[in-house]
Structure formats: structure tokens, C-alpha cells
Amino acid sequence: MKKNICLLLVCVASICSPTFALDLNAVFENQRKATFPDTCEMQMRTTVTLAGQPAQNVETTVVTAGENKSVTTVKSSIMQMRIVQNGSRMKVTDLKTGKALPAQNIPAQNPTDINKQMGSPEDYKSPVLEGGLWKISPKDASRPTLYYSQKQKRVVKMEVPVNGMIAESVFDYCDNSCPLPGTLKKVTIKTVASQGGESIVVLDVVNAKQRHVLPGKMFDVE
Length: 222
What we know:
The protein is mainly beta. The chain is built from 4 helices and 13 strands. The chain has helices at 2-16, 18-21, 24-32, 114-118; strands spanning 40-49, 56-64, 69-76, 80-86, 89-94, 100-101, 128-130, 133-136, 145-149, 154-162, 165-173, 184-192, 198-210. It has a 13-stranded antiparallel beta sheet.
């Protein structure tokens, strides 16, 4: 009888132990499911609020065809441009004047692509349960700290060191009512400067849908 009780206690301890409750490979596999299709169309609205300044809005439309073809249209009160990428070649056009712009003006990275920022499971320590979320700390302090919701099966918060500050990103995901359930719906990025100033960037994915056949002429960079 005592032997059976001991075995039962060992089993319960194994099930309840955080070591067995979360697998890093499963975290990254689930997060990959939040990735938008590589051929899709997205409409995004970005609102940037800096300390002591009025909010600025940027409307962005991105159409992708595979991993290396895209057309990005950016419109704001101070800028209107179209960026066409086709493999290693790019074409940037000022929509107000129709003139070509230097290619270095293009955005460095799609802000909805969380996976590239995360790295790989090997970059992180064992998860620790903290306040209802799993905190996943990096082995290298320059990488982001992840907060994973086991209920949502998604990373819901990320803390990234930036020039001596911490940028905190909070992620919201689409439910089953969206055309692409489980994909990113909203990102809120808050950064507090050492002097006390705060910046907030809110990116809303207004609409996203999968595309299948796109005309090749759309990605002409000549």
C-alpha cells in the first residue's frame, strides 16, 4: 500500500512540475502557426505616440507572393511611397512625385513577423511560470524575453533591450471569426526612456487575407 502511494505521489509531482509542463519546441511550433501565409494581402494601421507630441498615423498595405516578392504601400501625412521587392532587387517610388527613391529608405523588417525576432529554442533557458504566463528568458541578454500563454498557445508579450532601455511588446491574436484565425491582430510596443519619456507604437492589422495567384507584372522593378 505504501509503495502504491509513493508511486502515485511521484506521478502527481511529475505532472505538476513546471519542468514537464512546457516544452520550448512546442512553444516555437505553436508560434509558427501564427505566421501569415507567404502569399497574402494585409492592411495595417500604425499609430506612433511620442512624449509631448501629437500621435502620427501610418497606413500600410502589404501584398506578398512567396518569401521574396512583395509590394508595400505606405501613406502618412509626411510620406507616401511604394516599395516593390523582387528577389534581391528593389524599387522605391515617391507616390506624390512619381520619382524613384534610394532603396535604403525601405523598412528593415515586417513588424508582424515575430518568429524572426524570437530566434530558436536553443537560445533560451527553461521556462518559469510567473503570474499565469510562462517566462522564457534568453541565454544571451541581447535577445528578447518571451511570455507565453499556455491557454492561447501563443507568445503574448516580449521584452527587448534597445539602447539601454526595454521595449515591451504586447500581442493580440485573431479568434475564429477572422479570415486567418490565430494570426496577429494587434501589437502594442511601449518604450520608456531613462529620462522618463515614453513612446507607444500601436500596430493594428485591419484586414488580412490569403492570396493565391498574383500577376508577375505587379512585382516589376524595372
